[in-house]
Structures are given as C-alpha cells and as structure tokens.
C-alpha cells in the first residue's frame, strides 16, 4: 500500500483539527482528546511498522512517513506542553514558533509541495491565534503567530523570486 | 474619471465629520492625558518652538510639534475654543491620513480595473484602523505615512521626480517628523526605503531608483534643515542629549515596557491590550469572543490577498507582496522584546544605548496598518469580483466583511479615546475639564511682568498624577498654561540636566528649612505653586510647611500660590558683588549658604558661588583665582528678555573686568555678542524701569532688535564661560579688551564704558539658517519647475 501525498496532508490536517478542537473546548473533553491524539499517533506508528514488515514501503516513503510521525509527535508535545515549558523556564523569551517553522522547512524540503500549501499553512496558523486566545492558550497563540509570520515571509520570498524572473514591465 | 475622484474625496471629508461626536463642545472639554501634548495656552505656548525652552531653568529639547502648536495658535486667534481646535486637529489628522491612503491605493493599483473602490475602501479602513488604539491621540504620523509613500510610488514612475521629492520633504516637515524620538522618522522613512529596495530587486532598475531615493533624501534634509542643523549642533555640544547610559533604563522589574505586552499574536491584530479606554469598555472589548474573532478577520483578509494574485499584472502582484512585507516587518518590530527573537532585540538595545529610543515600539504598528488597510480592501474587492456570477452573494459577502471590520473598530467610531471615567460616580465623560483656577492663576502671574521663575511642587518625573476626578496621569499641565518660566521636573530625558539644585530646593522646602528661600532666590524663583491635587502628597501639611518660609498669596481647590521674599531673589541677569569659591561638591550648597552670615546673603550683595569641581578646566581663570568683592564700583546692568533664546543686556559705567551671571542652565551654546551701538548715542540708564531687583534693571523698553542681529554682531571670545551657583552661566566681561578694539562702546568721562550685549543661544542661529534654507529650497524648486514647464510647452508648440 502506498500512501498518496494528499492522503498525508489530509491526515496531517485532521490531527491539527483534533488538536484545535481540543484547545477550543479544553474543558471536560480535553483528556479524551489527548487520549485520541495519542491513540492516533500510536495507530499511525503501528501502521508504519506493519507496512515496513510487509515491505510495502519503498525506502523513500518510509523515510517520509517516519518524518511525518516525528513531526506530529514533536508538534503535539510542543503545543500541548509549551505553557509548562514556559513556566519551567520562567520566561517567555523562547518561542517554539521558530522550531515549528524549522520543522516546516524540512517538511517542504522533503515533500516539495505546491507553493499554495505555504499560504494555507500561514492562514491556518493565523486562524489558530484567536482560537487559542479564546481557549486561554495565550502562549500557544504566540507560537502560531510566530509560525504564521515566518511562513508568510517565506511566501513573500518565493513570490519575490518569481516576480524577479517575470520579464513583464 | 475625475468626477469619481472628487466624489470620493468629498465622501472621505464628510466621513471624517464623525469625529464631531468625540468632543463635548458644550462644556468645552478636551482629551488630554498620557503622552498627549496639546497647547493649552496656544499663543503663549509658541515659546516652545525655540531650540531652548525656559522650562526647568532652561533646557534643550527640540519641539516636534511646530505645526500643531502653530495651528492651535492660529485657531485661538480666530477665536475658537480649545475643544473646537482639538476637533479640527483630530479631523485633519484622520482625513489627511484617509486621503493619503486613497492616493496611495490609486497609485499602487493603477492597473487594477477596480482601483477606485479599493482606494475608497482602504481609506475608510485606515481612518478607523484599530492601530489607532495604540497611538497617541491624533498621532501626526498617522496622517502622513500613506501620503509620503503614495508620493514616492507616484514619483518613481513620473518624469518630474523633483516635484515629488520636494513634496515628500514638505510632508515630512508638516508631519512633525523632526522629533527627539526617532520613531516617527523611522516609520515614515522606512517604508520608502523598503519600497525602493524591493522595486530595485524585482524590476532591476537600480540606477533610476537610487537616484530618486537620493533626491528624496536631499530634499528631506533641505526642507527640514531648520531642525537638522539646530539639532545636530546642540547634540554635538551636549553629550547628555545622546543616550550614553550603560544599562537600559525604563525597565520595570527587569522587563522592557512592551515585554509580555505587545506580544506577536496581539500585534497581528494591530494593538496590544493597553488601550486608552475606560476600564469597563476596555474589558467588554477585549473579552468578547465575537470581537476577538473579528479582531483577526482583518489579518485573515489581508493575507488572503495571496489567493487573488493569479493572472494579475506584475505591478499589482509586486505591490501586494511589498505591502505584505511592510506589514510583516513592522509586526516584527512592534513586538520588540517579545518572542520570536525577543532576546536578540533586547541584546541589541542593551549593547547600543542610543537605541533605547526604541524601548517601546508598539507605535510602529502604524506601518502595518497602512498595508492592512490597502490589502484588506483589495481582498474584499477581489472576493466581490470572484462572486460575480451570484449577484446576491457578490453584494452580501463584501458588505458583511466591511461591516464586520467596522464592528472591529467600534471603539473609534463610538469615540472611546475621548471618554474618561469618574471614579466617584462611575459615569463617563467625553473629555476632561482643565480647572478654571489654572487659568486664573496664570492671569495673576502674567500681571507681574518681572522676569522671574515659578517652582511647581511636588516635582514630577516628566509625568504627573492628579487626584482630580477623573484621575489625571500624563504630561504636566502647568507648563502648558503658565507663560512664565516654570521649574517642575525632577529629571529629564534630554537636555543638560541640572535638576540637582531643584531637587535640593524641594527637599529644603519640605523640611521647612529657611535656606530654601536663599536657594529659591538663587534660581530666580519668585513664586511657588503647590499642586494640592497631586498624588502622593498631603495638601494641608505641604501648605503649612511651605507657609513657614513663603508668603501665601492665592488658594484654590487645585493650587496654592506662594511668594518668595524679594530680599532673597536674584535677578535673571546680575553682576555679583561678592563671589565665593568652593571646593565642596555642588550638592552641599545648602550647607555653604548656611555657613555664610545672614547679612551677606540678605543684603544687596548679589552673591555668586563657583564650585571648583564644576569648573575644572578654568581654575586659573578669573573669577576663580580670587574672591571678588566690589561693593562700590560694580557697573549697572539693564536687561530684557526678547525670547527664550535671546536677551539684550546693557552695561553702564564698566571700568574693570567683572563677572556676569545669567541664571539659566549652563550650556556651551550660550554666546555673547557685542551690539553695534553707534557712537554718540549715549546709553541712558532707564529711570522708568519695569522692575529692579538687587541692582539689575529689567527694562522692557529696550528694543527687540531685528531678527538678523546675532548674524552681524561680533561674538566675544568665551574662554571663561563658567558654571555658577551649581547650574547657571557666568562670563567674565573685560570692558577694556572689548572696547579698545571696537567702536561699539561709549566711553564716559571717568574712562568707564557703556555698551550693549546680546546673549544668544547659538543653535537657534543654525535653526534660523535652516528655516531660510528650507524656504529657499522650496522657492527655487518651484521656480525651476515653472521654467521647465514653460520651456516644455514652447518646445511642444514648435514641434
């Protein structure tokens, strides 16, 4: 079985949505959501492992899937526990938005998705700011704001490059 | 085509009338507080437009408010109230901003078929931009950033670039951009530079753009020459003007003011939570979930513009990308020491002290507001275009979006920035009433024409808190009302700070020490104003303590006026009869005065104290070499204050060298000029003088002289410009040396001389030169453009 790129994206956004719903309605169902998220991650991991055993994956695909798994896990941990990190560090100077952006850069380097994905990712990050603020996750809102800023800068860079190449007066 | 533009302009001008609802004209209330400075006594406040202001014994602080102060003075002359003037001020700032935005949008999207709708929409969005929540009231830069960017964008594509460069220079000046704080300058100049470099990159026309940018820089300098020249010289003469502190000041609990406050997620919606609104209204605005979502509708629309760039011309896409870049860059700058890279920002601020001017940068979000307004309008128009097939939706969705965006800005539409909250009855009031007694006291003080100073107590740190209802916290009000020189600040940001003596004086007054009378007299302080409603003081106790040494004259609910005895009062200019040289630090001035016999201080002695530690380089100079005691033969002196930077002093019967003391803060910029008195015109010592204090005659009948006087008079060498009385200027005047080489002195029968001096603050001279250069630049450019136009028309006719 080969996983299509669009399938990976759908899955990626599904997890993000779950995370978002969890943050917004983080009262009684938060625990349930966390468990669901972890279960999904576990299922995904099992799926990869079983696929590897059955040799359904090419080497590249395996690498991509492991990357997605790691990114999702890291994102989950970072976003879920970032307020705690913040308390641990006692400062708001560090911001995981930069780390997320670096992960995102690796993501686009490996998968080379269409440019539009950057715009979508930026818009989603931007949309997550008020959502996180409503859920009182102010630190997470800052993380998404940083991510949005950097993604949009990346988009601007790409567009400027395109404009430079356009010979139109 | 033109008709549509006129209708749009009219629409903007009419929309601006909404600011009528911000003010209570009936009760003559005004919006003032925090950093808002408006002239409360406009004609008298014009004195702050000089390079030297007579506040706090005299300080260098270049006003950034020339045009606003001139506007208020003009409106006062027309008989308008302060409330009406403030409405006009607000109206002008917002409508000029909106018109500038209209011009920018039309210029930027000149290839777009719907450019006029984009322009009108962006101008309305800008006029009510949420960025204004974080601004000073009617912040000048708000009006001029889009206009300047529009002129630059237009100028780049036009042949007569010089006209646009000149227009940019003029708008820079009108925008009060010469400000001691470089923020307004940065937010106006940075978009130009960014646009120039961005266009260079995508178009490759490096040479053309660089030449235009350079022309613009030259014009900005030439047309603002009046500021740059005066400021630069003052900065060079006074190291204190430039920040040299090793540690960052203005940190609270180790945090910079914007830290944890102007966070990046908040700045994406154009404002932090510190809004200038009454608490209950602020709470409603910030906690409502629907409003919270509409806050982010604006950035979502702005960045959604990226979905509408397919099949667009390079020009349109280029402009969209530029505005996005501008917006993001200034979001990053406005979040200052917050994440991401907040550490780096703070590190830079700590390592380069002069950058402490950027300790709070939330105001920089104004540039993002420019880009947000134009891009949100673009997206809304594009959504409408994409929904063309469904007329209902193509109308409903854009209109709904505009309504939602205006809902987001409802505090501006409802005039919240001018609402103040009473703490006694929780009612809201549209504006603030300046107590009548402030003006009544000013009237009383103005009736005394003597050139003396007023000490207002308690001293402030540059801001004052009053227990009035509604509470007041902001720029001290008295300096904006009282026309006499006022001393009231404990320390200041800029200028050569000689506030130590003022602090000592306050301490001596509060401890009811009688030496306070001497120190007050030594600073030319005749009146004391106690602010009864100032926070942190017990008014009854303070009043009683001050009454022990000073005579109570007037009292109101807000103020008490005291008078210092003439016995101790030293005039603004005087020739000391007795000098003292002290090796003690200047802070010990009360002890020094206490050690002197009462008769020495009280009599007509006109003492002067020179501290050797303050005059280290001049220990061999007179009068530090020996105690000066010339009770019988000291010359007579007349003086007149022409303006804060220019005094006329006449000396009569001067035979031997003598020290001349000027009780204004020491500054190397003060220079002495010898007036050109024609021989035969005997100088008669005034017998009908306005005021006589301890031998100095304040003679307001002396001529004001002409504007160019200091330019043509001979400047005297200042090898012995000394610090006296711990803060003031002292020169040694040597009549022989002055008069032997000049025909400007009149020799008397006893071989003594009469002559006239001008005491002038030198940086003002350069500022005046700057005004001239600015004017000439404009005239020459206009002349050049007219001549070129005539030649072009003639050439076209011939061909």
Would you write up a description of this structure?
Helix content of chain A is 82%, strand content 0%. Chain A is mostly helical and 169 residues long. In chain A, helix 4 crosses helix 6 (138-165). The longest helix of chain A has 31 residues, at 59-89. The model of chain A is unreliable at 84-93 (pLDDT under 50). With 799 residues, chain B is α+β, with helices and mostly antiparallel strands. Chain B is 45% helix and 14% strand. In chain B, helix 1 runs antiparallel to helix 4 (82-108) and helix 3 (66-77) packs across helix 4 (82-108). The longest helix of chain B has 37 residues, at 762-798. Chain B is globular, with a radius of gyration of 30 Å. Chain B starts with a helix and ends with a helix. Residues 239-248 and 492-497 of chain B have low confidence and may be disordered. At the A-B interface, helix 5 and helix 6 of A face helix 8, helix 13, helix 14 and helix 15 of B.
